[in-house]
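step 4 of 6: structure.
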Amino acid sequence: MEEKVIKLRQAVEEASPLIHNITNVVVTNFTANGLYAIGASPVMANAREEVGEMASISQGLVLNIGTLNETQVESMYLAGKSANENNVPVVLDPVGAGATTYRTETARNLLNEINVTLIRGNAGEISNLINEKVDMKGVDSKQELTDAVVVAGKAAREFGTFVALTGKTDVVTDGERTYYIKNGSPRLTKVTGTGCLLSSVTSAFLAVGEDDPLEAVASAIAYYGIAAEVAAEKARDFGIGHFQPFFFNELETLDHEEIKQRLSCREEEI
Amino acid sequence: MEEKVIKLRQAVEEASPLIHNITNVVVTNFTANGLYAIGASPVMANAREEVGEMASISQGLVLNIGTLNETQVESMYLAGKSANENNVPVVLDPVGAGATTYRTETARNLLNEINVTLIRGNAGEISNLINEKVDMKGVDSKQELTDAVVVAGKAAREFGTFVALTGKTDVVTDGERTYYIKNGSPRLTKVTGTGCLLSSVTSAFLAVGEDDPLEAVASAIAYYGIAAEVAAEKARDFGIGHFQPFFFNELETLDHEEIKQRLSCREEEI
Amino acid sequence: MEEKVIKLRQAVEEASPLIHNITNVVVTNFTANGLYAIGASPVMANAREEVGEMASISQGLVLNIGTLNETQVESMYLAGKSANENNVPVVLDPVGAGATTYRTETARNLLNEINVTLIRGNAGEISNLINEKVDMKGVDSKQELTDAVVVAGKAAREFGTFVALTGKTDVVTDGERTYYIKNGSPRLTKVTGTGCLLSSVTSAFLAVGEDDPLEAVASAIAYYGIAAEVAAEKARDFGIGHFQPFFFNELETLDHEEIKQRLSCREEEI
């Protein structure tokens, strides 16, 4: 797995896939800079007049409902259908699903209308998509991890997608194979957009990982988590303001030795 | 007062109030990260389909007209009315009131239609709200401070709100009691969104300071100013690019001793 | 030329021109902070209800189509016409022209309807505006530089504007006089919005460089490139995450000696 993470990371740098993000206004800059840091090419385009064309020339499409509105949702449908027609993988980040009816329903409708490759969200968001009432504030206890696996698997089978349910332990599944990843840093939870950027980074790994896309998703999440761990160590004498630049440094130039030593990822079949 | 500032700061961390921001596109990321730094939970939601629901589950609502448009203003009314119905305190940041007719009128209309708890702005913005023609580029001379107090008091009485008029000396008043705060750093004026973030930080302090909300506003402003002072000192060997990460560090972990030693806040009755 | 760069830089600080940006949602914060760093006053306003009024009180207007949509384009026309009526210089940044039909056509229509002072873009964007099919991924070979000069000159004459075609070598021309600038750092290509901010910085220099506006454009680009060079050196022990704060530091306080020693700019007549 270490070698796969390294190989995919290098493939992103070499191929520089164009990742089209229709995302929320909070994280646009952070997302674009994070994609540049790993060598991908970000593009943001929201207008219905161009999203279909932009998605068709992209290698990945990310739909993020963090600050959704009527116009943007219309553009998401147009971009999603164009991506489907052109075999461009689609990542859905259902930010805040469950917080309002509008978010929950929009996320579900997108899943019904568009062929989504991956849903990337936290336990609360994923469980709300499938209408499960699980009380999870993060995946930290044994019971919570069990619940997370059940929820992720159920969502994967119900929607016919991969699911990456991220928390203290990240669960990546297609409903049959499951990866458990334990890399990351609590500091990620104190910076806005770290989940959103992870969705976009995963899209970049998917763009170059066609031979085993589920493994590509797990590799992206592991890479991201290890980058955060190393950044947190290097920024340990500073507060949260300095974590961000150190994190981008690691996204850009994470040492392969760190990947080999820190990777905590195991795979299981149901 | 020192103890109150410390107590409210800790209460924000413990309660982690959900602060709903309908704000301008320039400062969304900065605002969210600043709220995370003090331990609050930021949410940005703009769509008319969900703002009422989101405001109703929040502990604070911030309306910021920095890049207002027709759709966003409609959402501000919906969110504001929902906040009023659910006893969620509303902070209005009238960014640029006076610069264009549209801004001035929108700010006044919002004040007429919504029960606002606090207006947070600079001298130019507040004076334009009440149609006073005072030439103030910051509150630095004795005359300017006198004018600021008159303007802030008049606005507080006219709109029935608290007013925080920030500048070299910050004036916080309900029209009768007035706090004068002299913490802060000139570097705040060289980073975009520092006023906007202050409005949101104040909203977080209001959410946990119900027993004396005017004091909570003054406490938020003092905390913010002291964090900026300490950050400016720690970043003194660097330019403006480094002030921002140091400032977020201090918002997160400002030493209580610094608060005790630096607090410059006095209260007066009219 | 060194003295001119220094003089204009100081003039920006002293006059603090108000630069009205109608720009994409990715770079709003970065642009505002970059303008503050050089001492200019940024304002972002998008609503049709106010853009005309805002442009009329500004000293520069920047139209950036990076995340254009129907409403924003309408505002660009209103602001542009107001700027023209009030003799406010207009800078157009045709982000992504050529990537989609909507972008290419919108950029051309803006050029037809509004009196634009300067177009600032890369080789691909500028060549698409004039429908030239030149394969340019940056201006790095001798042939590419020759092509760039031809494209920039043709665009300048066709649209009756100044053109700043930026790449490894930056070409600034009015179709007759041409400046070649070789300052900059590859790190600029790894941070989102560095081209967009350059357009806005150029607008600030134009606001104070009326006696020779073409030279003002060249001076802005040289200043920006030198700031990036120095920042890249100071941040050389760090990754891309640290380049950004160091770059803002230099935009704010770039040493005049650095300008004198590093400036690489020559002027030619056709």
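step 5 of 6: annotate
 - The two ends of chain B are 19 Å apart (CA to CA).
 - The mean pLDDT of chain B is 95.
step 6 of 6: archive
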